[in-house]
Amino acid sequence: MGHPVTGRDTGFTLVELLIVVAIVSVLAVGAGLAVSRAPAADRDLSRFLAALSRERALAVIGGQSRGLVIGARGMAAVGRDASGWQVPQHMAPWRGRVTLTGERVANGPDIVFLANGAGSAWRITFSGDGGSRRCAGEGMTEPTCSGG
């Protein structure tokens, strides 16, 4: 039949746990190096898409308009309260060159997200390190991106 399982036979040993931690650490370092070597346009695009998704979700969850201010030197997330749009305190810098087109709200951010999930239409181009990437958003739909 076999011997009964006791408390000492269950779980992981310290050695097994250390091996798993070491493997995960090596993979994390490798992923970090791969991202830092990505072209500027790809890094800027990734950061932009993450901010876009985050601000849209915050607008819906918080029930208040949110936006992104896009400048030649960087980007900042802003909210809207009773007194109007917030002034960006810090612009996260771009690694390459960024160009945005689209209608802009007077005295507001370049890209706006409403509490119902709708947003403004925009087109953006990221360039640097010899490559370029383009994305467009039309309000309620997910952005479409191209380039390489």
Short description:
By secondary structure, the protein is α+β, with helices and mostly antiparallel strands. It has helices spanning 14-36, 40-62, and strands at residues 66-70, 74-81, 84-85, 92-93, 97-101, 111-113, 121-128, 131-138, 144-147.
Helix content: 25-40%
Q: What's the tally of helices?
A: 2
Write the element-wise H/E pattern from the N-terminal end onward: HHEEEEEEEEE
Question: Distance between the terminal alpha carbons, to the nearest Å?
Answer: 62 Å
Strand content: 25-35%
Q: What radius of gyration results from the CA coordinates? A: 22 Å
| 3D shape | elongated
Query: What are the segments in which pLDDT stays under 50 over at least 5 consecutive residues?
Result: none
Mean pLDDT: 85
Q: Largest sheet at a glance?
A: 5 strands, antiparallel
CATH homologous superfamily grouping of the largest domain:
minor pseudopilin epsh domain
Count structural domains: 2
Counting DSSP E segments of at least 2 residues, the number of strands comes to 9
CATH architecture of the largest domain: 3-Layer(bab) Sandwich
- Which CATH class of the largest domain applies here? Alpha Beta
Give me the CATH fold name of the largest domain. minor pseudopilin epsh fold
Structural class: alpha+beta
Labels describing this entry:
148 residues; alpha+beta; minor pseudopilin epsh fold; 2 domains; 5-stranded antiparallel sheet; 4-stranded antiparallel sheet; 31% helix; elongated; transmembrane
